[in-house]
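Figure 3 (text version): structure tokens given as input.
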């Protein structure tokens, strides 16, 4: 059996870890595969700052006003198919008491015999939209790295909730892996970013062997790329900047390039983000 096991929690949160809504988009695609049942949800009073993540109001079918509160929840597939089961942990990145938040979900994972965690993130980076999306695949677990040929991140600095969950899971004996996608920073307002979401799902399939239907996402990704091409065609400065990024990327992809290029870009990004970003920073 693979070291990540047969019951894997796929994790993505809205917020700091989700540039271009790419990671949360991957979770949405997984949710569309099958029906899921709620396993556990947190009390929002404990973990969310409502001035940072406000509740929303809406009118139901009977015309009554309802409040929807920020949440973070664990879901399990109702009818698991062949191969590993994907459980989903998703919601809004908590604003406080992260250790209690992580402990709460790890306790549930241990109770329900979860065998592995894979966290999904997306970061703004100096990369071109016209080239394959870079995915940094890493693990702090020796067995996972050896089994899947993953990197070990040497980053030191401010961390997000994904890193906290990975730490708590590994401390509890649950192996983890992480996938981070690079989102072209100059298209931060062109969200969602289906090409980035598609790249995350492609790499997730390589890692787990679980097929995720994504034909519709491929069509959306092509349209997204074409729309950016059209916008750049009317902006000479943007066109030249994209060409510069393409030349850099092509150099990275050449046989002479260092295999650490993506890892270095990932760690450079995290150092740049050490200014404690606000709720809108990733979508500027």
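Below: residues designed for each position.
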């Amino acid at each position: 059996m693979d070291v990540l096991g047969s019951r894997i929690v796929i994790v993505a949160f809205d917020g700091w870890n989700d540039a271009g809504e790419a990671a949360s988009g991957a979770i949405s695609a997984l949710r569309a595969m099958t029906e899921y049942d709620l396993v556990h949800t947190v009390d929002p009073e404990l973990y969310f700052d409502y001035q940072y993540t406000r509740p929303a109001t809406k009118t139901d079918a009977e015309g009554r006003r309802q409040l929807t509160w920020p949440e973070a929840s664990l879901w399990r597939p109702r009818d698991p198919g062949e191969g590993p089961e994907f459980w989903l942990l998703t919601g809004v990145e908590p604003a406080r008491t992260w250790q209690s938040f992580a402990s709460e979900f790890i306790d549930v994972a241990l109770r329900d015999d979860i065998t592995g965690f894979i966290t999904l993130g997306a970061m703004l980076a100096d990369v071109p939209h016209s080239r394959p999306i870079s995915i940094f695949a890493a693990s702090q677990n020796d067995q996972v790295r050896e089994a899947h040929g993953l990197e070990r991140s040497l980053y030191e600095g401010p961390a997000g909730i994904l890193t906290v969950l990975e730490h708590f899971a590994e401390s509890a004996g649950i192996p983890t892996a992480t996938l981070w996608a690079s989102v072209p920073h100059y298209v931060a307002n062109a969200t969602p970013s289906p090409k980035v979401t598609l790249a995350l799902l492609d790499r997730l399939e390589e890692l787990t062997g679980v097929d995720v239907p994504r034909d519709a996402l491929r069509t959306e990704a092509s349209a997204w790329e074409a729309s950016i091409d059209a916008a750049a065609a009317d902006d000479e400065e943007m066109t030249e900047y994209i060409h510069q990024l393409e030349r850099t990327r092509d150099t990275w992809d050449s046989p002479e390039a260092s295999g650490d290029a993506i890892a270095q870009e990932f760690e450079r990004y995290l150092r740049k983000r050490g200014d404690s970003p606000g709720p809108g920073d990733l979508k500027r």
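The chain has one domain: 7-283.
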